[in-house]
């Protein structure tokens, strides 16, 4: 299929597929007239790119994954998983803080000891360490 049909099948614009090609993530074969040819194999690669994007990997990280030997891929995946776990912990702590904030009865939030403690330690506390909330 041609690039327009492939883009429609994937739910992206054609320029996205061209960009993925320009950064080395896709390499669709060309017809004798020079048009890109997208078959199911190339569409599967594009779907993998979309899945990795949803997982939070950058195009550069994906490119490195494709170029790395197995130990390098494992290292990159471990690093990304650690970042995901840290983000999850931060989101949990934020959710706990927001839950407290919704129930906080202090007329001025800055005067609430629990809110102040959270704000004062937000940059130094490990994500998810919102004591007592």
Short description:
By secondary structure, the protein is mainly α. It has helices at residues 3-10, 14-22, 40-54, 59-67, 70-103, 113-120.
What are the key terms here?
Multidrug-efflux Transporter Regulator, Chain: A, Domain 2, DNA-binding transcriptional MerR regulator, MerR_fam, disordered C terminus, mainly alpha, 133 residues, elongated
Overview of this structure, please?
By secondary structure, this protein is mainly α. It is 62% helix and 0% strand. It has six helices and no strands.
Tell me the strand percentage band. Answer: under 5%
Structural class: mainly alpha
Please name the CATH architecture of the largest domain. Orthogonal Bundle
Please mark out the parts with pLDDT under 50 across 5 or more consecutive residues, or reply none. Answer: 126-133
Which helices and strands appear, and what pairs or packs with what?
Layout (H helix, E strand, L loop, with lengths): L2 H8 L3 H9 L17 H15 L4 H9 L2 H34 L9 H8 L13
